[in-house]
Design brief:
Layout: H1 21-26, H2 44-58, E1 64-67, E2 73-75, E3 78-79, H3 86-92, E4 103-108, E5 114-120, H4 129-133, H5 139-142, H6 148-155, E6 158-161, E7 172-173, H7 178-186, H8 193-215, H9 217-222, H10 226-241, E8 244-245, E9 250-253, E10 274-279, E11 281-282, E12 291-296, H11 303-322, H12 329-346, H13 354-357, E13 403-406, E14 409-412, E15 426-429, E16 432-437, E17 440-443, H14 452-465
Parallel strand pairs: 1-7, 5-6
Antiparallel strand pairs: 1-4, 2-3, 4-5, 8-11, 9-10, 10-12, 13-16, 14-15, 16-17
């Protein structure tokens, strides 16, 4: 970026120079009229209204303030891309096109319930310095911005200029008031029809992204920072078919796969490696997938790699079998961990038996090789509903409409002397996105190969269609 705006023509620095008088005399005229038509209401508006009604019922007579959040500085005068607070988007239906600084206010009504008003900074009139001189919000800099009337029609909400917004001491403010923060998180535990549709879309696009990666494995192997190639290939799909990634992509090859949140992605991908790819596309509504596959980059698992991989899949399948409406959320984790304990004990990796390792008070020895949980809720946040009460989350009851992950793993660090050398540096995770239905779990990501045989066939299929000659100019 090589330009900078100036909200005051009298302020000069190395980055901000005064505007000449001729510019000031002419900049406000000669513009065509802006289109006056209003957009149709977006599909999620009716769902957002129903969510607000549920929240209203939980806080009778209280004024609720839900900010979208502000831009965050990356360096000097550059900012990170803006993403609204998940609760704000959930309650307004405003997704990737939401405005920084916007605030949803739910004011109690005399007759009961709440009225909702969305405050945001409307686009500036072209006669004002904000239009041409403010690089953060001026349309001359960042492009067209929404008008109050257009957003009101789009979201089915009353809108007012942000200058009209004022807080009061009695307000309940999101991320300040614990009760409100908890309530908006718990509101998302069971997804409505629109949310489920968006989750299906996010998973579908993510599946295409994984296909892209497998198709590019020759280029991944050829580059000295092949992990970055994986990240870049997935990013292209995420930005072209969605809003972006729902979280930083993990592209962890070889021993890097044993680091649970490896996002440096600066390593080489060597022949014979397994590469663990944990990635998810966030679509424009801000709902995101969260999927992991572990792939043998040369096309075939070694015997030891396959043994570890299929054990992780066995743990995942046990978790799927345990997931039923009416059971507790933690039951899913317990089922997966039972397999992990049994297999690591059979391999002689534990100093105790599997039953002893599974003892709630004195066990846990198997957790050395899988320290994370098996599942988390998923939706408009990759770790959705995180502020919910424990009795509603880990100890909560699975219900139709809940969306969550199943993601067991095994990780044998490169320097872990408690495991035989042949296991060291192997990290495997398999993660699927699950919709609970009245009949049991539906694997939303089932189309992405899961078994060792399926993964090998997946790689072979792409290898057989790869071009063999020089790329034409």
């Amino acid at each position: 970026m090589s330009t900078s705006g100036d909200t005051s023509s009298n302020t000069t620095t190395n980055r901000r120079q005064p505007f000449p008088q001729g510019f000031l005399d002419s900049i406000s005229s000669g513009w065509a009229e802006r289109p006056g038509s209003l957009p149709p209401q977006r599909p999620q508006a009716q769902y957002a209204a129903a969510r607000r009604e549920r929240l209203s019922a939980a806080f009778p007579g209280r004024r609720l303030v839900i900010p979208a959040g502000e831009m965050k500085q990356r360096s000097n005068d550059t900012d990170y891309p803006f993403r609204a607070h998940s609760a704000f988007s959930h309650l307004t239906g405003w997704g990737s096109d939401s405005e920084p600084g916007a605030v949803l206010v739910m004011d109690p009504l005399p007759e009961g319930g709440h009225g909702a008003t969305l405050y945001f900074r409307e686009r500036a009139d072209r006669t004002t310095p904000e239009f041409y001189a403010d690089a953060s919000v001026g349309e001359f800099w960042i492009g067209p911005r929404p008008a109050l009337a257009g957003v009101a029609a789009d979201l089915g909400l009353e809108t007012r200029h942000l200058d009209d917004f004022a807080t009061a001491d009695a307000d309940l403010m999101l991320d300040v008031d614990a009760e409100l923060t908890r309530a908006v998180s718990e509101l998302r535990l069971v997804k409505d029809a629109f949310e489920v549709e968006q989750m299906r879309l996010a998973v579908e696009v993510t599946a295409h992204g994984f296909d892209d990666i497998v198709a590019e494995l020759p280029r991944v192997l050829a580059h000295p920072r092949g992990e970055r190639v994986v990240e870049g290939v997935f990013h292209l799909r995420a930005r072209t078919d969605g809003n972006g990634e729902g979280y930083d992509t993990i592209a962890a090859s070889g021993p890097h796969a044993c680091y649970l949140h490896w996002t440096r992605n600066d390593g080489t991908v060597a022949p014979g490696d397994l590469i663990l790819i944990d990635a998810g596309v966030e679509v424009d509504s801000l709902y995101t997938a969260d999927i992991t596959r572990t792939i043998p980059v040369s096309g075939r698992f070694t015997d030891v790699q396959r043994r570890v991989y299929e054990t992780v899949r066995e743990a995942a399948d046990a978790a799927f079998a345990a997931a039923r409406p009416g059971v507790t959320f933690r039951t899913v984790h317990e089922a997966a961990m039972r397999v992990i304990a049994q297999r690591t004990a059979e391999w002689g990796l534990l100093p105790v038996s599997a039953d002893e390792a599974l003892d709630a008070d004195r066990g846990g020895q198997h957790r050395r090789y899988m320290v994370h949980g098996t599942s988390h809720h998923l939706g408009i946040d990759v770790h959705d509903c995180a502020q919910a009460r424990r009795e509603m989350y880990y100890d909560g009851i699975l219900e139709p409409g809940m969306v969550f992950t199943i993601e067991p793993g095994l990780y044998f660090q490169i320097d872990d002397l408690t495991v035989p050398e042949e296991y060291r540096g192997i990290g495997v995770r398999i993660e699927d996105d699950v919709l609970m239905t009245a009949d049991g779990p539906e694997n939303l990501s089932a189309s992405i190969p899961r078994t060792a045989d399926e993964v090998e066939a997946w790689i072979a299929r792409h290898a057989s269609t790869a071009p063999t000659g020089p790329t034409p100019l």
